[in-house]
Amino acid sequence: MTLATRLFVREKTRYAPAEPEQVLAAAQQIVDARMVRGTSFKDPSVACAFFRDKLGHLEREVFAAVMLDTRHRLIEYVELFQGTIDGAEVHPREVVRAALRFNAAAVLVAHNHPSGELEASAADRALTVRLKQALALVEVRLLDHVIVGGRNSQSMVARGLV
Question: Which long-range contacts (C-beta less than 8 Å, at least 24 apart) are formed by 133-138?
Fold first, then answer.
């Protein structure tokens, strides 16, 4: 029995099997409800799981950030840039602007690789350095850059790349 046949939607007085899109929308609501303002991101595994749930299913590259307070608690999740199947153009200025808008003390960033590849490219590493420098100018710490590939994710801090 598939998930779609176990989930039903109400149509007037009868129930009918849910469409795959409805199942995915319900799952996204559950993911969104799981992480609420104030959730702690002190452990890199929490960030990896969070971004994996948010970005792992996407068919094109998306660059997102989590804005954190001084105790590394969630203020806001924002998707900043969308790209194509193999890249997204990221502007450090816009990341800094978002951090200031939410009064963040620290930021976690992530992007997905729709190909499923977890390795950080040379461009990913260079971007991370530029982001860290740009955020430091306004006294915001870049804590990690997570790469998501399908149902897996990799912390660049854990790999010694941040």
Answer: 133/92, 134/92, 134/93, 134/95, 134/96, 135/92, 135/95, 135/96, 135/99, 135/107, 137/96, 138/96, 138/99, 138/100
Cβ neighbors of 35 (< 8 A, separation 6 or more) are: 50, 74, 77
Distance CA 138, CA 96 (A): 8
Give the number of other CB atoms < 10 A from CB of residue 14: 7
Interval 140-162: pLDDT, tens: 999 999 999 988 999 998 888 77
Report the C-alpha gap between 124 and 126 in whole angstroms. 6
pLDDT tens per residue, range 1-36:
444 445 555 555 667 777 777 766 666 665 555 555
d(CA 159, CA 162): 8
Determine if the pTM surpasses 0.85: no
